[in-house]
Every structure is written in structure tokens, then in C-alpha cells.
Amino acid sequence: MPWNDNANPGPWGAPPPNDGNGDKKPPPRRPTGGGGGNGPRGPRRPEGPELNAAFERLQQQARDFFGGPGGNGIRPGAIAAVAGVGFGLWALSGVYIVQPNEQAVVTTFGAYSRSEGPGIRYHLPAPLERVEKVPVTSLNRIDIGGTATNDVPAESLMLTGDENIVDVDFSVTWRVANARNFVFNVRDQDDAVKAVAESAMREVVGRTPLQDVLTRGRGQVQAQAAETMQRTLDSWNAGVTVVEVQIRTANPPTEVVAAFRDVTNAQQDAESAANEANTYRNRVINEAKGDAAKLIESARGYREQSVREATGDVSRFDQIYTEYRKAPGVTKERLYIETMQRVLQNSNKVVIDGKGASAPIILPPDVFRPRTAAPPAVRVEPQPETGAAPAPNAGAAR
């Protein structure tokens, strides 16, 4: 191999090119950084002919590796080595990683084979087996009826049970419950869930009055819509679980908002008047019930008092009768005295024992004045000119 062969250059690179007469031309010298043109040269960079030579060397080495004895044919070992490397790369293409929130569905020639959980997994390389990863713990949300800035009347306008029109914007939150059913039983899963949600909401709103959709019945509408959606998706074996249905806004159509506000204000006034009437009714009824209870309790107290007084009178009469049977005279005198005392104890009267007295009796003025306590006994004496004996003591004033 000659050193000046361009196909196989020597270790110092290709020889300098020749001119037409075969004379060699020295290569131009490049100046270095600090000195002049005659300064020391740095390491020589590869030039165009050197790159071509390196590439040709690689080609020659490949020909030597794959070429058979004498440069004819291809070596069997080379073919086996290339095939082994290709097979190894093809086999390693079946290694895949399943994230914690995912589940892998493995298919063999398009048919379901198995499901794999999180971790490093392996499947037969394509086209034997393929893998589709499905997020099974992530929550998905679909907005129906548009957004706050972009309304979609075709999705939001619905007919209520009392034949009114309502504009309902709502959202559906769902997740994948069964990756196999989700992949194989439903095509365009997001569009399918959205269509089922819209249909379910229209069905529930269609049997609900407008006032319930706008106010107090909104929670019930949401629950019924979620239940209807889940029932439909289960009948399809869609592998989807409905987490929540939330009504974002529910308003009458824009054209009738003013009239609807007037109706709402009138209803609020009617409810306010009804509440005031109920308050007055409750107050009057409670007062009447209190008065009735008071009268009943008073009557019961009077009845108890009368019964006990009558019982006491009967008991006292029995005791007096028992004593009367033992001593009738004494008992009569005692009864008479007690009766007269009870009758005369609050009267301004003077009892005078006038036996044996003939002169007039003069009573002091204090006897006839009202008093609370019993006055002392008054002694009355006859006038001196009559010569009569002094009268006995007068009785106590009562």
C-alpha cells in the first residue's frame, strides 16, 4: 500500500495534491496567534480530504468485517451479530412503566389480554402486544352549557315540567372505574359521557317545576341527574363512575329576565305577608291556649278547695254531733256563744246587762268609733240624783 494512495492514506494524512506536471506543491502555512508567519504551528485540524479518508477507512473496515474469505460474500457471523442486536432492541421495546394513577390494558393482536397495575412492566413487542395506559384515579370534568364567557344555548336551554324554559349550565366530575370496559366498550369516551350527562339533565329538568330548578330543588335535581347518568353508563358497561353533578347557574332565558324578576318579587311579597299572618295566628292561638289552661287550672283548684272544705265541714259536724250526744246542754250553749261571737265580732254594738237597773245609761262616744281590736269593758253607773244603786258592769263592746 503506497503512502501516497488517496484511498488508503498513511498515518500523517493524505499527501499534498500534485499539479498538472506532477510537481508537488507545499501546503500553505497558517500563521499562529502571537507570532508572525514563521512562528511555531499548533495541532493541525482535519481538512476535507482527511474526513473523506476517515470515512473511507470505516467503509473498508465494514467490508472486511462483513466480507467472506477472499473478499467474496458475507460472513455468517456478521449476519448473526446484526440479527442479535436487532432482536435485542426489539425485545427491549416491550418494557414500559405504569404510573401510580394509571392502569395498563394489554392487548394481543387487538384482543384483550390482561390489565397491569403501577410499576415496571413488560409486554411482547409490537405487533404482538400493545399497551394502552388509562388514568383510573384522576378526576375528569366536563362543562356543559358553556362557560361564564361563552354560552352554548343549544346545550343549556331546557324545558321544565311546568312548560317553562330554563338556562342551565352544569359540570360533571367522573373517573374511570374499569379500564378494560372503558377502552373496549365505549368509543370517544369524553363525548359519550357528555352526551349522557346532557340527556340525563334534560330528563330530570323535564319533570321538575321551574321554581324548584331555580331555588330549593336544585340539590335534588343534581342527585337525580347523577343517578340517571350512572344507570345509563352501567347499562353500557362503560367503566365510568359519576362522582358529582353540579349546577353552576340556573336562570330564565335572557328575553324574559325582567318579567321573571317581577314575578319573583311578587312571590316574595306574598310569602312575607303569609309569614306575618302565620306569626299573628300563632301568637293569638298560643295566648288563647294559655288563657284556657289558666281557666282550667283555676276551676280545678276551686273544685279541690270546695271538696276539701266540704270534707272538713262534714268531719267537724261529726265531731260536734259526737259531743252533743254526750252533753246536749253544754254543747248547745257553746254553739250559741260561738255563733254570736262570729256574727258580732266585726260590729260596733254594745251588749248591756240591764237587769235591776232603772236609771238611763250614758255610753261614751268612743264606743261607736270603728276599731280593729276589742275595746275594754265599759262600766256604767246610774245618775246620783236618782239614788238608785249603781248598775253592774256593762258587757264588752264587740
Fold blueprint:
Elements: H1 48-66, H2 76-92, E1 95-98, E2 102-108, E3 111-116, E4 119-122, E5 129-135, E6 140-144, H3 153-156, E7 157-159, E8 165-176, H4 179-184, H5 189-206, H6 210-214, H7 218-236, E9 240-251, H8 257-326, H9 328-344
Antiparallel strand pairs: 1-4, 2-3, 2-5, 6-8, 7-8, 8-9
Helix pairs in contact: 5-7, 8-9
Describe this structure in words.
This protein is α+β, with helices and mostly antiparallel strands and 398 residues long. It is built from 9 helices and 9 strands. The strands form 3 sheets. Strands 6, 7, 8 and 9 form a 4-stranded antiparallel β-sheet that branches. A hairpin with a 2-residue loop joins strand 2 (102-108) and strand 3 (111-116). It is rod-shaped and about 185 Å long. The termini are far apart.
At a glance:
The chain is 44% helix and 15% strand.
Total helical elements: 9
Coarse morphology: rod-shaped
Structural class estimated from helices and strands: alpha+beta
Q: Which value, in Å, is the CA radius of gyration? A: 63 Å
Question: What are the defining features of this structure?
Answer:
398 residues, alpha+beta, four-stranded antiparallel β-sheet, 9 helices, 44% helix
